[in-house]
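Note to self: keep these together.
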Amino acid sequence: MHKRGFTLAEVLVVIAIIGTLSGLGLPAISAVLRTVRRTACASNLRQVGMSALAYAEDWSGLLPAEGACGVQNVAKSPAWFVLLPPYLDDERVRVHSVFQCAAFRWSGPQAFDNATPKSFKMNSYLDAAKRPRHYRLGSIRGGREAEVVLFADAVAGETGMGQWGHLVGSGVSDERHPGAVNALCLDGHTQSSVRTPEDGRWSQALTWVPPGWAGGP
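Structure:
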């Protein structure tokens, strides 16, 4: 019995069809992955918010400081990156952390001074303009804490670890979620913000301090 095989032309046609279908599917897969990472990033931010609110409950409504406040021994500083990890059992030196965006990629050393890389930073303006280093929840009246950013996706900073340095408008990173930034607000909710042409800069697209406060961007 004669068996007919595939010709070279037929094989090439099948390969071309498979290649075309794969090419059509890749953008959709990439879009799904971006959505998954953005959602996972927002989930991590919510956990950071829970730890901040838990800390504030233990300390009469006060949040940790935005930075080390000049304390040379980082382990004894009042900074959030020292005080919040114990509330999330995140003190271990490890590659992945809830203090990282899911799309964050760090190619340097995986630990630095017993800390893991962090890709979120705390709003630097809350402690600015001679205000106390520890923001007290409720200081912004009229329910406007829901508008003010507490943490957001940020660039790595001067050490590359993303925990020292300050979160200001120019330090916001929109490279992990192209065109968008995940932010945690003072009331504990997260939002995905998009910088529009009208906003121009992230210093304008996000609310750093409420109207009437000095020391904003």
